[in-house]
What does this fold into?
Amino acid sequence: MNHVIEIKGLTKNYKDFTLGEISAEIPCGFSTALIGANGAGKTTLIDILCGVTAKSTGETIYFEEMTDIGESRLRNRIGYCSSMNFFPADCTLKEVEISMELGFDNFDKEKFSKLCQRFKLEVPTGKKRKKLSKFSDGNKMRTYLAAVLARDTELLVLDEPASSLDPLARDILCDMFREYLSERDGERSIIFSTHNIADMENVTDYAIFMANGKIIERGFIEELKQKYILVHGDAENFQKAKPFMMSFSGNRTSFEGIALAEHAGMLKRFDTAIELPTLQQLSIGILRKAENNAEV
Amino acid sequence: MQKCKTFTLSQAMQIYTGKSLVRTVIFYTVKGIIGYFFVILVLLLLDVISGNFYVYGEFFNESVSNILLGVELSVMLFMFQRTYEKEDSGGKFFRSVTGGFSTYQKMKTGILFSEILIIALVSGIFFAASAIFPFMPGTGACLTICVIHLFDVGVMNFISIIPKREIKYFLWMIFPVLLDAGSVVLIAIAEEKIGLFQMITAIFAIILIPLSQKIMLNHYQKNYWNT
It folds into this structure.
């Protein structure tokens, strides 16, 4: 399988936080979600991949051939947007259009106008020119997305694109992800971080779970759903089932949690119901286990 | 394969500020002149309101006129000191655009040219107009204020190296004001030897501007861009 990005031993040291060492391959032609709690290192990793933050050590190979993110040819192939204040707050949509057109070789003005309309934003060339600082958080994110999607790129790297969007806009974003990937099937890829796992599940093919600056699990969603199971049971059987479970929550009458699929046979003996977990349930299970391990 | 463009100073400025070099120079020159005349108008209005045409005569003299011109240029210089750090709005976008740091470097060089052009233009216009309007700074004062502010451009670059943001902004605000005040006093007391002072300051400014620009950009790349 081709990899859009291959990360080898990447680290970043801050005074109070260390990212890595991270090694991973991100498959080409798919949509990859970076999932993790706040402070897990998702934004730092994205910023390093896009050349916004410098790494301390390690190497990243893009599109199986390029390693220097400072190279303009590589920057043109990657569409990046951050979660907050991506564009200067004092600029208008028209100024965003001008900056994008000048800043990148592959920005399409007409597509930007169409995307603005689709996201129910004002027309960039219209007479009313509001500054981004007057936009709601949701509309700011719509602007960032319209701008980055108006470029003809091969890889989108988006930091929490869904966090400030309403459910309807999130749905439009999912449609746009599908359109982006299908326009050039197998050639384009998306990497995005998210906390809105349930809403973004149907556009996620591959997931990378992060905790405390490290990757704790990764894989295609279908493979992960075969590796892990969702377990339900009555509270009276909880103590027996507990040693076989990765993470759990419960009340006086019942419990629920994630376990490895290889323990399914054993868990069934304790009168439990086994189900296929959703990505949301899987994420909570994996991240909770990482949190518990860190506390120990 | 996609071709990659290289930017002119003006295009780099447009990416960062939304305005080209020419537009920036025109905008701030006009703003500086309008600002000056606006204060004059306020003083005249105060005269009219007071009814005795006394305020203008009482408070307005050549020193006030010199201070006003100096303040206009100092405010403009302060406006150009934005450093576009990663945490600032737009900081991450600017780090992702084609060219990366070389685009930032070109933008800063464009800003430097704009500053010099605006100082020269505003001072030049006032220099020419001083023959017509009695309330404008004199020709000697215009030249002094011009060279003082060119020197200030270099000093402002050095101030940007200070790591503590609050101190940096404080000095960016206070230093030009101190220079203005100093130049006004100097114009008033050393009128005869002012030519020598202008020449020495101009020589210092010519050396200081490119040197400070280079040091400032190297420092920014090392301590802010590549972090």
About this structure: Residues 194-225 of chain B form the longest helix (32 residues). DSSP finds nine helices and no strands in chain B. The radius of gyration of chain B is 20 Å. Chain B touches chain A through 28 residues (CB under 8 Å).
